[in-house]
Design goal:
Blueprint: H1 3-33, H2 42-54, H3 58-76, H4 79-104, H5 115-135, H6 143-153, H7 159-178, H8 181-202, E1 208-215, H9 218-229, E2 234-239, E3 246-255, H10 259-269, E4 274-279
Antiparallel strand pairs: 1-3, 1-4, 2-3
Helix pairs in contact: 1-4, 1-5, 2-3, 2-7, 3-4, 3-6, 5-8, 6-7, 7-8, 9-10
């Protein structure tokens, strides 16, 4: 297969994943979250709040809220990431408004029964949708762009905590607007379910992953990972037991959602690597958990 055909096939597969993911995410929001006034995190949550207050279309509002982030991402993160994210956010915004129109016409039913069930199904659909975007090296904008921008400014801070604070502010604001403390509590369940579905669909169970990469281009891969992911890499000289060939083994510890991006970086730097991915049940150190306190 020629490079041109390979690129066309990759683009087709990317768009199929993104389309399925956006449909799933939009269904979770419009069929389950909005009818039951369930708060959401991120820019979608802000769009739902604005929709509740002044009845603006959720999709268009979500897209408009992301425009300043797209501009910053284009300047500071990179054109390729920004173009992909812009395209996926456009698809998602269009589908959310299209589904809302079909719901208003009675073509698509909404669920307004048990709020807990609505919350669980919304989380599952949104998590599956996000995982489809992550698997093809893209995002739905919003929180992920904010996280990457903060990472450039504050590389040694816990981005997870900063994003958690942002999401908590959105959820609390939604609870105030909806005049329901239960909305925030249900949102916590939704976010938990969504994050678990992303982990299971995309990477399987586990708190983190450890990659063992055997390669002849250790420094090329290391340079690419450290510059694009700000993750550390350890290089260990190894020798094949049967062939006696001398290579290097890279040891890389990551959060689960970073695996697909690192695999893509490795593939581009050296397509002939031998890679082993294992579970890392607990990871202590900079960028992960703080070391456990001493008993003494």
């Amino acid at each position: 297969m020629t490079d041109k055909k390979q690129k066309a096939l990759t683009l087709l597969v990317d768009n199929l994943f993104w389309l399925v993911g956006c449909i799933s995410y939009a269904a979770g929001v419009t069929i389950f979250a909005v009818p039951n006034n369930i708060a959401q995190s991120g820019m979608t949550g802000v769009a739902i709040i604005i929709n509740y207050l002044i009845n603006t279309p959720i999709g268009i509002t979500n897209f408009a809220l992301n425009i300043p982030l797209f501009i910053l991402a284009w300047i500071f993160i990179g054109k390729k990431f920004t173009v992909k994210t812009l395209w996926v956010t456009t698809i998602l915004s269009f589908i959310m408004d299209a589904m809302t129109t079909l719901i208003n016409k009675g073509i698509i039913p909404t669920y307004e029964g048990d709020t807990l069930l609505a919350c669980i199904f919304c989380g599952a659909l949104c998590g599956f949708g996000l995982s489809m975007a992550f698997l093809r090296d893209s995002t739905t904008g919003g929180t992920d762009i904010i996280m990457r921008l903060f990472k450039l400014i504050l590389p040694h801070y816990s981005m997870g905590k900063l994003i958690m604070i942002f999401d908590a502010m959105v959820v609390i604001a939604a609870a105030i607007v909806f005049k329901s403390a239960e909305s925030a509590l249900y949102a916590a369940i939704l976010i938990f379910v969504s994050s678990k579905v992303v982990d299971y669909v995309t990477y399987g169970a586990g708190n983190g992953k450890m990659l063992l990469v055997f390669t002849d281009n250790a420094h090329k891969i290391t340079s690419a990972i450290t510059s694009q992911m700000t993750r550390g890499v350890s290089i260990v000289p190894v020798e094949g037991g049967y062939t006696g060939d001398k290579k290097n083994m890279l040891i890389i510890v990551l959060r689960s959602h970073e695996v697909s991006k690192v695999r893509e970086i490795i593939k581009k730097a050296d397509p002939h690597t031998f890679t082993v991915i294992t579970e890392a049940r607990e990871i202590f150190g900079e960028g992960f958990k703080a070391p456990p306190a001493s008993d003494s």
